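Recall from the previous chapter that SMILES is a line notation for molecules. Here it describes zinc ion.
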Amino acid sequence: MTTKTRSAKARDTGLDVRLPKETCTDPKCPFHGHIKVRGQTIEGVVVSTKMQGTVVVERTLLHYVPKYERYEKRKSRYMVHAPPCLKITEGKRVRMAETRPLAKNVSFVLVENLGEVSLPVKGEEEVKS
Ligand SMILES: [Zn+2]
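With both inputs in hand, we obtain:
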């Protein structure tokens, strides 16, 4: 159990993330609404913010192919709900957490802004055999 020493404004999500400085009135915000997170947390890069309240997050990972003894680059895209208090723009590294399905294709919510991407996209996870 976590102690209730954090600021009364933001709800404790149970994740080890920086709390947003702003507050919002979004009911689907994990800090100021009533969305509970459980399951996976994933890091990625925001590639599109054209939808209302939802962003597209892409993550790349290296997958080892034993036959060629090399890595292949894989990527996957997630539609992620973006609460307004996090102030997410395109090109930001973010952390998202799994929630119940919020829409047909949305079952993740952003929980942390990890800042700007350093230009050659770093942080690619290596999957060693
Ligand atoms: Zn919020």
